[in-house]
Structures are given as C-alpha cells and as structure tokens.
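Quick review question:
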C-alpha cells in the first residue's frame, strides 16, 4: 500500500447520516447528532450508594448484547478529567464502536455525580431505546430519575455537505475572532472557529464517505503527527480516498453554560436534556464568503493610501502611518458584506432538527424534567474508592518480615 493511500481515521466516515435538503449551490446535505454529553446528580446518599454498586457490578460478567469495559476517564488534551471512574459500552460485535461512556466519582465540588457520553451516530432511535432500557433494567429506577434530572454539557451537530471543499469558501463565526488551521500529514484540511471551551464553536473539515463498508475492511496503522510542536499518536487507514465520495463536515459544538447567581453546581442549568428539542438555532452565527474575497482583501491592503508619487520615501511614510483614519477597516467591512454568500438556507436546515432528535429515541424524547430541592442539592456527589486492594502473597509477606528485622 502506497503512503499516499494512508488516511487519518478521523477523516473516514462509516456511520450513515440522514439526508435533508440540498444547499443553495446544489450540494446534497446530511445532518445528525455526533456527540451528546449529559450530567446528572444524586438526590440522596442511599440512592448514590445503591446506584454506584450496580454500576461497579456491570463489567463483572459477560452480557449477550453488549460489552462493558472499565475505562478510566482521560482528556485528550492531557488536562485533568472531572471524573475518576468510567465504563465503556459497545455492542457485542467485532470492531464495534463505543455507544456510551458512563462516568461517576467527581473530583471537584459542584460537579454532578453521574455523567453519560452518548455517540448517537452509531444507533437508530430504536437501538438507543433498547440501550437505555437495558441500562435501566440493570441499574434500577434511579437511572430513569437521573435522565430526567440531567442537563446537557456538550452537543455536537454535524452538517455534511457533499461535493464541497474547505477551500471553496472562506469561513467565519460571528462574535468570535479565534481560529486554528489543521493540515496534518495524511489528513484532510480543517479549520476550527471559536474557543474550544466557548458556548459555541465550529470545526470544518473534509471527510470521505465509506458508509458502504465496515471498518475492518481497511487495515489500520498507528503513527504520529506533529501538533503544536508535539508528537501526537493517531491511527491511519489504508484507503484510497479517490475511490469514495467526499464531503465537507461543518460540526457545530454547543457547550451550554449554567446561568444565574450562586456557586458552581448550584446555578440554573442552561439546557436540560428534557428540553433538547427546544434547542436554539446553532447555525445562525456561521459566516460563509466567496473565495475571491481573499484577493480583494489583498488588493485593498496594497492600494490603501497608495501615494501618487515616484518617491520611495512616500511609500515608507505610508507603511509607518498604517491605517490612517480607519479607511482600510471600512473598506474591509464593505468587502465582507459584498462577498458574503448564503451557502444553504439555515432555517431550512434547522427544520430537520426533529429528525435528529428522533435518533435519540422515545425515552429521551418524552422525558419530563425533575428538579432538586434545597435539601437534595446539599447531598454530596463524591464517592468513596471501593476498589479492593490486592492481597499480598506469602512471598511478599515473608520479604516484608525479613526487611523489618533489625
């Protein structure tokens, strides 16, 4: 396999999305929920103790339909993760992707006692309901209450535009000046807009559609890429990207923040899981511009305050003076307004949000919210470390006794 046929695993799509409308340029488009993280809290010590015991028992046996594995929570960025313990759940099939990640044991006060990270792209609405029912049967009625109390901490909505490339347009995000380009070896170009931890950010990057194939069809290799001067471990697939349909993913990342007075963990939640269907339009802040804008901006910089003389000193004075009177800024604003395009009808796209919600199933779609009383808010969400210590062998005990002799 040639080197140019190695492609970063993140740029290959195996899970199908729902078709929606076409873009105003005639591109086929698809929409889905790519990530859903929720957090909930326990309302009594008894409830917490019983629920955690049942959680810990899940990986102790084999199940017919699911595989449950212990997995310590870690952040990809290397920062401290808010939870101590975790369980990864996948279907009992070869090379099955993770469906849900259950976490508990918060490290800091104000953090909810239980969290779930869902990956709905790997499930239909019916399969999501089956998973939630399976968990409810094994974790007890507390699980249903935890869902009703849950609030959303992260939601990724993926809009796929087929036949469109990142370089076809220039991109922006209203009320944000932060951006980062991605162009790693053996990957497709990408652009991040907005701060990573802000309420709304966007990741725009190329992918290829391999949904007609299974992951195991393509051999996988581990390797490293350079990011911010550091080596980062990635995984690559032996796949010819020219043999598969290409699309541009516009991924809106929503991270609702709690609002109102009070200390951390006690403020009003910005988005309850039960209110997810009422989510406000996230695509409104996305800006798209014609590619020719780049040349017009360069030309505007070059011709701004251009001196009408053959003397080089006049050019030196212009460079020192910079944007005199804000003329360049005004010219830029006019060019931006003139070159902004409507790649797709944002309201038309958002009218398909109920279809995305249907992929979360009836259990989540029919939730009724539960709110804590003052007494319930005072319940600690911390859990004790119940992991059993390994018993010392006779040899280890004998060695300790020998070392302790004078």
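Suggested answer, residue by residue:
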């Amino acid at each position: 396999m040639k080197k140019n046929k190695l492609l970063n695993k993140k740029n290959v799509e195996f899970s199908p999305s729902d078709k929606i409308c076409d873009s105003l340029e005639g591109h086929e488009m698809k929409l889905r929920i790519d990530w859903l993280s929720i957090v909930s809290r326990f309302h009594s010590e008894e409830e917490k103790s019983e629920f955690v015991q049942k959680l810990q028992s899940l990986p102790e046996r084999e199940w017919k339909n699911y595989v449950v594995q212990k997995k310590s929570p870690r952040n990809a960025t290397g920062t401290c993760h808010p939870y101590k313990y975790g369980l990864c759940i996948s279907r009992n099939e070869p090379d099955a992707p993770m469906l849900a990640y259950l976490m508990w044991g918060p490290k800091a006060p104000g953090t909810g006692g239980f969290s779930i990270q869902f990956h709905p792209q790997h499930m239909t609405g019916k399969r999501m309901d089956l998973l939630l029912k399976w968990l409810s049967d094994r974790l007890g009625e507390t699980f249903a209450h935890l869902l009703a109390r849950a609030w959303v901490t992260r939601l990724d909505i993926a809009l796929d535009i087929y036949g469109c490339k990142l370089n076809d347009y220039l991109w922006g995000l209203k009320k944000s000046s932060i951006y980062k380009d991605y162009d790693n070896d053996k990957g497709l170009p990408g652009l991040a807009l907005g701060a990573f931890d802000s309420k709304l950010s966007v990741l725009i990057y190329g992918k290829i559609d391999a949904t007609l194939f299974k992951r195991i069809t393509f051999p996988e290799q581990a390797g490293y890429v350079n990011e911010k001067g550091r080596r980062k471990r990635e995984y690559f697939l032996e796949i010819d990207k020219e043999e598969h349909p290409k699309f541009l993913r516009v991924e809106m990342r929503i991270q609702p923040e709690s609002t109102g007075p009070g200390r951390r963990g006690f403020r009003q939640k910005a988005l309850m899981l039960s209110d997810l269907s009422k989510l406000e339009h996230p695509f409104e802040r996305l800006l798209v511009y014609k590619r020719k804008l780049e040349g017009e901006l360069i030309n505007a910089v070059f011709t701004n305050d251009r001196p009408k003389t053959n003397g080089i000193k006049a050019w030196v004075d212009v460079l020192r003076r910079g944007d005199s009177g804000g003329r360049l800024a005004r010219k830029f604003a006019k060019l931006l307004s003139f070159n902004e395009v409507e790649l797709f009808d944002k309201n038309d796209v958002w009218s398909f949000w109920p279809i995305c919600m249907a992929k979360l199933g009836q259990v989540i779609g029919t939730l009724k919210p539960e709110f804590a009383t003052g007494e319930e808010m005072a319940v600690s969400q911390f859990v004790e470390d119940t992991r059993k210590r390994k018993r010392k062998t006779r040899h280890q005990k004998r060695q300790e006794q020998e070392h302790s002799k004078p």
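Why it works: The chain is about 25% helix and 30% strand. The longest strand covers residues 28-40.
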